């Protein structure tokens, strides 16, 4: 079922909000009784679609189509995640006597359909629909919509090493604002929206993410080269551990910690581009060490690391410079694909 009438959608959102705000039902984890979704294959960097209660109640047909597409046209590209809080709320709504303008759209019927759908998919051997497990949390004290946001942040920053592409599917404007503030993209239903439109946009964004991730090793290697060029056999004195350099966030922290004294041979303090100075700003640090959420951010992200690599590579041999040129060409193609 996919409910499109705005009055119906608003009524469903109000019912969920009433449950969430007034604690009509707050079950414990022991009372949840959902099936363990089992082991599933984790792709290197995946997209996770985190579903809010109002969305699964109103647009179950879209979620079913998304699930089908994840086995076919977009196999392995994304996974649908049902937060613990959502399962709690569905459990609390399944016996509700509230209706949404028509008996066909009664809250209890919608909730039971959603629970049945989750239950069926949680039992698949390699599910593309999975429930949030108890350990998959950052803030264990988060409640209500903050708990759903926490689920998003866990799958964005922790699951499979972090740096994942997460989309919150919700018709709750307040929750969507909270998500956007935390660099989590959102999808809210609009007339004419279908699973193909959602999936194709997500896959395009995922390709962008993977183009960024694919070039992380080059950036990390460039930092390692600069450090070893500066310190040689004395590198142990700065407590630098190459094995701990795994992500762009690690790279940013390393650049900040070692500062200009380490990278003086590659950057001029007088130049406008000074990565050590730029990364001191927390907003800029997040911008250049996380996946760009928009085309504008992507342009700035690529320009920042392009200038960094060019400075490090200027004293390297022709073969290495050609390798850098290939990387820059790859970035350029990725940027054109988002236009």
TrEMBL record:
Pfam entry (one): SWT1_3rd
GO cellular component: nucleus
Gene Ontology molecular function terms on file: RNA nuclease activity
InterPro entries on file: PIN-like_dom_sf, PIN_dom, SWT1_C, SWT1_Regulator
Domain of life (superkingdom): Eukaryota
Ranges of residues in domain PIN: 47-177
Protein name: Transcriptional protein SWT1
Organism whose genome encodes this protein: Pichia kudriavzevii (Yeast)
Phylogenetic classification of the source organism: Eukaryota, Fungi, Dikarya, Ascomycota, Saccharomycotina
């Amino acid at each position: 079922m996919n409910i499109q009438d705005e009055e119906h959608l608003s009524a469903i959102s109000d019912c969920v909000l009433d449950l969430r705000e007034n604690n009509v039902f707050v079950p414990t984890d022991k009372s949840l009784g959902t099936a363990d979704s089992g082991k599933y294959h984790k792709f290197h960097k995946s997209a996770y679609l985190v579903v809010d209660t109002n969305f699964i109640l109103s647009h179950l047909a879209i979620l079913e189509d998304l699930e089908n597409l994840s086995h076919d046209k977009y196999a392995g590209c994304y996974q649908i995640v049902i937060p613990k809080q959502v399962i709690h709320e569905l459990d609390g709504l399944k016996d509700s006597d509230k209706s949404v303008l028509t008996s066909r759209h009664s809250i209890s019927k919608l909730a039971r359909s959603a629970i049945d759908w989750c239950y069926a998919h949680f039992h698949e051997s390699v599910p593309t629909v999975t429930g949030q497990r108890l350990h998959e949390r950052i803030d264990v004290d988060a409640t209500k919509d903050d708990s759903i946001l926490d689920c998003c942040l866990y799958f964005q920053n922790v699951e499979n090493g972090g740096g994942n592409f997460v989309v919150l599917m919700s018709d709750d404007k307040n929750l969507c604002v909270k998500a956007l503030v935390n660099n989590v993209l959102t999808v809210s239903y609009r007339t004419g929206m279908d699973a193909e439109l959602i999936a194709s946009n997500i896959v395009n964004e995922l390709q962008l993410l993977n183009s960024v991730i694919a070039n992380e090793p080059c950036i990390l290697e460039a930092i390692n080269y600069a450090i070893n060029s500066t310190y040689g056999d004395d590198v142990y004195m700065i407590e630098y551990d190459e094995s701990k350099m795994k992500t762009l966030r690690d790279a940013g922290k390393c650049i900040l910690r070692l500062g200009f004294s380490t990278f003086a041979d590659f950057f001029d303090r007088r130049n406008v581009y000074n990565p050590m100075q730029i990364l001191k700003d927390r907003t800029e640090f997040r911008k250049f060490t996380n996946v760009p959420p928009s085309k504008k951010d992507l342009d700035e992200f690529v320009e920042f690391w392009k200038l960094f690599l060019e400075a490090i590579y200027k004293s390297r041999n022709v073969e290495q410079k050609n390798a850098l040129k290939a990387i820059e060409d790859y970035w350029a193609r990725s940027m054109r694909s988002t236009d």
